[in-house]
Amino acid sequence: MTVTHPAKRQGLRGERVGSLWSFLTWPIHTLAAVSAALVAVGFAAVVIAVFYRYLLGAPLNGVDELTGYLVVAITSCGLGSALLLDQHIGVDILTASAGRGAKRGLEIWASLCVLACAAILASSAWHTVLFNRDFGTYSTGPLEIPIWWAQAPMVPGAVVLGLAALMRLLRIMQEKTK
User: Fold this and answer.
1) Could you tell me which of 12, 1, 8, 7 has the C-alpha nearest to residue 169?
2) Is the overall model pTM greater than 0.85, yes or no?
3) Helix, strand or coil for residue 68?
4) What's the gap between Cα 126 and its chain centre?
5) Total Cβ atoms within 10 A of residue 114
6) Residue 43: how many CA atoms within 13 Å on its side-chain side?
7) Per-residue b/e over 135-151, b at no fewer than 16 CB within 10 Å?
8) CB–CB of 147/137 below 8 Å?
9) Contact at 8 Å (CB) between 60 and 47?
10) Among residues 176, 173, 163, 138, which one has the least CA distance to residue 21?
11) C-beta neighbour count of 90 within 10 angstroms
12) Mean pLDDT, 10 residues at a time, the chain of 178 residues
């Protein structure tokens, strides 16, 4: 797999897309950076928990719950970047044997499906977060945080996933005009 940074690609009419593409991708890359930072936070939490448990003999409560919430946030924040940079898991069974036109059609179909799923995810996550915030639901673990805090990253994650799917769709459509 070769990865070309999206800013290096051509625009819809053949011109370089520097600033427009950068403007559209900044939320995606910002959330990817947040995802990377959260990976570091999760790693630090686990290292500290291991240190306390095995060297000090005093296990920390809530680290398992925290890392579970971090996995949701890490995944949600990294979705758009993984899709935009073609670093996601793809199934090549159909596209490997498809011709150029069929492959392009499958890529368009896949982008439209991701866009629809991102819209559904954004809507359902938004309503779930609002419901749990208004209802006042708290986690049952040792952290006892408002559960909507753990669910909130799904909303911007779904929005940037939709933006990445839209940009991917535009990129595929642009390749036809070359």
Assistant:
1) 12
2) no
3) helix
4) 16
5) 20
6) 6
7) eeeebeeebeebbbbbb
8) yes
9) no
10) 163
11) 12
12) 47 51 86 96 96 93 94 94 82 75 87 96 97 95 94 96 92 73
Cβ–Cβ < 8 Å for 136, 105: no
pLDDT of 177 reads: 55
CB atoms inside a 10 Å sphere around CB 26: 10
Q: How far apart are CA 165 and CA 99, in angstroms?
A: 22
Residue whose pair of structure tokens reads 């403007």 in the numeric block: 23
The two structure tokens encoding residue 153: 């990253």
From the list 64, 61, 110, the residue with the least C-alpha distance to 90 is 110
The residue assigned the tokens 């535009």 is 170
pLDDT computed for residue 18 by the predictor = 64
End-to-end, the C-alpha distance of the chain in Å comes to: 22
Give the count of beta carbons closer than 10 Å to the beta carbon of residue 77.
25
pLDDT score recorded for residue 52: 95
> Which residue's structure tokens are 């559904």?
120
Report the alpha-carbon distance of residue 96 to residue 169 in Å, rounded. Answer: 19
**Residue 138, φ and ψ in degrees, nearest 5:** -115, 155
